[in-house]
């Protein structure tokens, strides 16, 4: 077994940095609805999620195998290629975190690997069939399946509890949310921590430390689990705000349905070796749960921005990675230049984020003024109010919205002073 070189050490450290950003970028997947409904305090929620992410990292290595020997061909891949791929993934994670959009860390990593590999050895280094079956198809199917499951689960919970006291049932569902949030955290550690394990394993194979087809060593599993747990504990509060309050307003019943549905999809995909985006699954589940309550709406302007980010993730990370690979080809100075670029860009993004701080103290404060669109408003207007809202309250709202017209005033004439 050869010794780990300086370049390989840089790649491993960069991979763990990506894992750290993955943790705080995706904390919202597990804890956004739990925090937004008040089921747990923000700091306690991220602490619990961090511990379960660490535990989940030790449960399986199937996704790691997909990354290390499925998406790209191990032959011809150098540590410089993997380093360039990680640069593209990290910068995309930080940029989308800055603007509070829940994009996929998994797809950022995939895009980085694909872009850097193509720039290095051409399209022959990419396994197109694996990308389609284990990345692209799950990317489309995951939010749809999780969303449909959460929609049906929400409808079912409201139907079952329609004759019960809303306050008493809300307490029970908040307790259920804590359990389901723990399940999502466990699933996230099982799925996402493995991606970094796969990248480090691929780097070790490329550097001649491991033979092709090897499983991740125990120290790789442990370091990846610790890195993602630390990132999770830091808390990606900007994205938690978007997922918890920006997409829709969830009640405890809906939060429980969303988290349970997302966890089921993620755990199933992990066992099958699909490199699934937990962000896609959880976002789809949140939107499905939002539509599952009568009168519930989804803020489609926010959802549209999120969909655009999803579509740009693979190509954007791939382009940055391809450019980084071109520079690293120039030798040691190229690797140093890319490393300086990564550090400088990350530092600049952090300083920009300090202009408007979002943390556990204001994570549930929504001040962007994002209103539902015309279609959503029309649907809500003809939908019966949710349980617990009286008809008289709805009529009062209508009276304050539509001013009464003086009966003595002609229809086409101006309003009289008494009617104003």
TrEMBL record:
It is found in: Membrane. InterPro entries: Phos_transporter. Keywords: Membrane, Phosphate transport, Transmembrane, Transmembrane helix, Transport. Pfam families: PHO4. The chain crosses the membrane at residues 6-24, 44-61, 81-101, 108-129, 135-153, 196-213, 219-240, 307-327, 333-352. The keyword Membrane applies. It is a multi-pass membrane protein. Belongs to the inorganic phosphate transporter (PiT) (TC 2.A.20) family. This is Phosphate transporter. It comes from Streptomyces albipurpureus. The lineage of its organism: Bacteria, Bacillati, Actinomycetota, Actinomycetes, Kitasatosporales.
């Amino acid at each position: 077994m050869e010794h780990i070189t300086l370049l390989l050490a840089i790649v491993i450290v960069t991979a763990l940095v990506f894992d750290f950003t993955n943790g705080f970028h995706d904390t919202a997947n597990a804890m956004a609805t739990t925090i937004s409904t008040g089921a747990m305090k923000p700091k306690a929620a991220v602490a619990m999620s961090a511990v379960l992410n660490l535990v989940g990292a030790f449960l399986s290595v199937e996704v790691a195998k997909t990354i290390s020997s499925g998406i790209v061909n191990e032959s011809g891949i150098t540590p410089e290629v993997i380093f360039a791929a990680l640069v593209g993934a990290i910068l995309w994670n930080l940029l989308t975190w800055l603007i509070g959009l829940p994009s996929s860390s998994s797809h950022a990593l995939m895009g980085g690997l694909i872009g850097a590999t193509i720039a290095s050895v051409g399209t022959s280094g990419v396994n197109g069939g694996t990308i389609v079956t284990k990345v692209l198809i799950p990317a489309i199917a995951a939010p749809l399946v999780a969303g449909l499951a959460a929609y049906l689960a929400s409808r079912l919970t409201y139907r079952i509890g329609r004759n019960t006291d809303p306050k008493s049932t809300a307490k029970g569902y908040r307790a259920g949310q804590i359990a389901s949030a723990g399940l999502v955290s466990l699933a996230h550690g099982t799925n996402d921590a493995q991606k970094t394990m796969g990248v480090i394993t691929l780097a070790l194979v490329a550097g001649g430390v491991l033979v092709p087809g090897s499983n991740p060593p125990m120290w790789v599993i442990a370091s990846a689990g610790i890195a993602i747990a630390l990132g999770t504990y830091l808390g990606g509060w900007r994205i938690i705000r978007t997922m918890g309050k920006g997409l829709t307003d969830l009640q405890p019943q809906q939060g429980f349905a969303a988290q349970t549905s997302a966890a089921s999809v993620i755990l199933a995909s992990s066992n099958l070796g699909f490199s699934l985006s937990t962000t896609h699954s959880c976002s789809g589940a949140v939107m499905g749960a939002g539509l599952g309550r009568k009168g519930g709406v989804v803020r489609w302007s926010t959802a549209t921005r999120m969909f655009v980010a999803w579509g740009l993730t693979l190509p954007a990370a791939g382009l940055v990675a391809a450019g980084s690979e071109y520079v690293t080809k120039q030798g040691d100075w190229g690797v140093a230049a890319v490393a300086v670029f990564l550090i400088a860009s990350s530092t600049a993004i952090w300083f920009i984020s300090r202009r408007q701080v979002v943390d556990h103290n204001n994570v549930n404060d929504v001040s962007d003024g994002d209103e539902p669109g015309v279609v959503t408003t029309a649907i809500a207007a003809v939908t019966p109010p949710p349980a617990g809202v009286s008809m008289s309250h709805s009529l009062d709202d209508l009276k304050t919205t539509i001013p009464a017209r003086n009966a003595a005033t002609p229809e086409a004439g101006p309003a009289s002073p008494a009617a104003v």
